[in-house]
Amino acid sequence: MSQFRFRYVASLVLTAVMVVTGCSSGGTETESVGGQGGGQQVTLSMHSWRVEDTEGYKAIIKAFEADHPNIKIDFKPFKATEYNTILNTALQSDSGPDILQLRPYAPGIALAEAGHLEPLDNVPGISTIPKDVLAAATGKDGKVYGVPLSLNSTQFYYNKKIFEQNGLQAPKSWDELIATAKTLKEKGIVPISFGAKEGWLLSLSHGVIAPASYSGTNYLDKLLKGESDLKSAEFLQSVQRMQELIPYFPENYVGLELNDMRTLFATEKAAMFINGSFELEGIKKLNPDLPLDFFPMPTDDGKQVLTTWVDGSYAVNAKSKHKAEALKFMEFMATKKFGELFANQFKRISAVPGVSTDDPLVNKMAELSQSSATPYLMVVSFAEGKPTTKQTLENALQGMYLGKLTPEQVVEEVQKSAATWFPPFKK
Amino acid sequence: MRWLIHLFPLPALVIYTLFVVYPIFSAFLYSLYDWNGIKRGVFVGLQNFITLFTVEPFNEMFWNAFRHNVFYFVVEMIVQNGIAFGLAFLIYRKIRGSGFLKIAYFMPRLLSVIVIGFLWKLILNPNYGALNSILAKIGLEEWTRPWLGDPDTALLAIILINSWFGIGFAILIFLAGLQSIPEDLIEAARLDGATGLRMLWKMILPLCMPAITIMTIFTFIQAFEAFELVYAMQGSMGEPFYSTDTLAVYFYRMAFSSGAGDVTLGLGSALAVVLFFIVGSVSALSLYLMRKREVQH
């Protein structure tokens, strides 16, 4: 009896200790496999926030393992909203994975600054990736810490059938966009599937609409140097345009979430839907027969812009016991072979240049992201601050749609937030 | 071997220390650092507390969330506990089907909060939700609205759902209080001529005070730690426009909210410490004050 009790207590204490020291199972393991050419087999652990990509990675990892029989990769995804916490805890207790997915821009770079990441400048293939793409994982010291995975683009998706039936074409200017929306509304079709309940979708939509108000990189240069600010006429107009679209949103749009918006568009009740390349798969799954196309944002000087940013990179843990092997995987990720596998597997734009897929829409996005891209300003340049300037914009836009703030007050709030941390505004 | 008996509480004690006592102390400790969640920064003393109460937008967000917690408490006291006491009294007086009612009111409690949140989100959906459809069908078209997207109704909707969820538990507590009143005391009062409301006001309520005290403190703690239902229905941003933000949601957003680069574990811990003091001191104080008013029998 007493022995049983002792075991019971001991096992409880042990469990508790294991919980506290935490996550040690996520660490590295080495197993020596006899007979296979006598080589040491290494298993690398790889953490990601893309649970939905698990199947896809299986195929990609298989291709890598075929070329590197000594390396096995254990892909382990976590829930996206908990990923940062899990990763940070593991890195601090020195039990982090060998390979980790890195959030793009400020949050990911913060890990490099804390000394957790291995510089990747010498990995072959890195130099073929454009500099502005690498910027998503480049530290303030100028070193590259991650191999970028893919570009995200945001644009107006539209229903080709509804457009044709109403004699409409993809608009070429802001006025044409408004006229198109008006026509659709008169015909009893919801012009733009939109919801204001989730803040991140507001900054995302603003990211699509805004570049038309400051066409050209001229304004961006001035803004990022601090010669202009977010209260400028250009930025204010971008917020006013967000307001101008209100009549063309669905009824009760302030209570709608992404799910509702996607459903409205996929069930052909709405003609347009502002969203990201990452939604492509979701829309197609809901309605495979949807006559789907997209148009980039038309600017007033007759051009068009596609808003893009880098979505995540992969990095190597500076304390990994198998750095050489992990770097081999980084090398693989910078190859065209990986880019093609990735793009076809996930229907996403690969960060490796010149990769095409079997999906014409993805190819069109990839092409435009090379010829007419504009950065998603809030993610690329204004994702810092506490709360971030991006979050401040989201909240203020929500306030505007609820009738609590004017566009002037929105830009005021955003500028105020940026001025607390953005170096060119601080002076 | 008798000394072995002292080992029995050990597992509970170990777990309690590890998961309750230790985190409380570590939160105190963390609140003194500037910490972004990746690498513990410099020791800043009480700076996080000062920031919390004096720097925009933190102070605004704090008081905004605080007001919502107070509102949460008041509405729950009136709606949940008021109705629960009335129903408990009816069940106590043994109206027809009181046994069934007791079970029926407790039913929502059996579902997890996440399920409740999901169910009500469907019911309140502005496009295809049951509530708006019913309102439109019975001719109250102008009452339909995006309940959870409208800052005027979102918080109230969540609190009412929480009251619906909590009413069964409150009934059980009140019923236990009512049933503990000695029959002879009621009988004596009745002989002295007390009836109806007078009986309720002068006899039953004072004798029920222990149950009411307990329920008030429960409700207070619950209102000030309101998190799950808000998070399940509105996410960690307290959307829309911070209209459903509570202190616990605000804490979660600061300390853990992933995906953005604005994690401030030090500041979040400071808020947790403040929350701990609010709940702890008010609970202790009200327990002390209300005990004094309780009638001993």
Can you describe what's shown?
The complex is a heterodimer of chains A (427) and B (297). About 5% of the residues of chain A have low confidence. Chain A folds into two domains: 163 residues, D-Maltodextrin-Binding Protein, domain 2; 208 residues, Periplasmic binding protein-like II (D-Maltodextrin-Binding Protein, domain 2, 3-Layer(aba) Sandwich). Helices cover 45% and strands 16% of the residues of chain A. Chain A is of the alpha/beta class and 427 residues long. The longest helix of chain A is centred in the first third of the chain and has 20 residues. Chain B has 297 residues and is mainly alpha-helical. Chain B has a domain of 202 residues: MetI-like fold, CATH 1.10.3720.10. Chain B is 68% helix and 2% strand. Chain B has a two-stranded antiparallel sheet. In chain B, strand 1 and strand 2 form a beta hairpin. The mean pLDDT of chain B is 87. The chains are: A alpha/beta (427), B mainly alpha (297). The interface between A and B is large, with 55 and 41 residues.
Structure in a nutshell:
The complex is a heterodimer of chains A (427) and B (297). With 427 residues, chain A is of the alpha/beta class.
Mean pLDDT of chain B: 87
Count of structural domains of chain A = 2
Oligomer: heterodimer
Percent strand of chain A: 15-25%
Q: Which sheet architecture does the biggest sheet of chain B show?
A: 2 strands, antiparallel
CATH architecture of the domain at 56-257 in chain B, by name, is Orthogonal Bundle
Helix-residue proportion of chain A: 40-55%
What is the CATH architecture descriptor of the largest domain in chain A? 3-Layer(aba) Sandwich
Biggest interface, CB < 8 A: A-B, 55 and 41 residues
| CATH-defined fold name of the largest domain in chain A | D-Maltodextrin-Binding Protein, domain 2
Question: If you compute it from the alpha carbons, what radius of gyration of chain A comes out, rounded to the nearest whole angstrom?
Answer: 24 Å
Count of helical stretches of chain B = 13
What is the 3D form of chain B?
globular
- DSSP strand content of chain B: under 5%
Low-confidence stretches of chain B: none
Task: Determine the N-to-C terminus distance of chain A.
Answer: 73 Å
CATH-assigned homologous superfamily of the largest domain in chain A: Periplasmic binding protein-like II
Question: For this structure, what is the CATH class of the largest domain in chain A?
Answer: Alpha Beta
Structure summary, number of beta strands of chain A? 14
What order do the SSEs of chain B take from the amino end to the carboxyl end, as H and E? HEEHHHHHHHHHHHH
The biggest sheet of chain A, with number of strands, parallel, antiparallel or mixed sense and barrel status, is: 8 strands, mixed
Keywords (chain B): Cell membrane, Membrane, Transmembrane, Transmembrane helix, Transport
InterPro entries (chain B): MetI-like, MetI-like_sf, UgpAE/MalFG_permease
Domain ABC transmembrane type-1 (chain B): 66-286
Protein name (chain B): Putative sugar ABC transporter permease
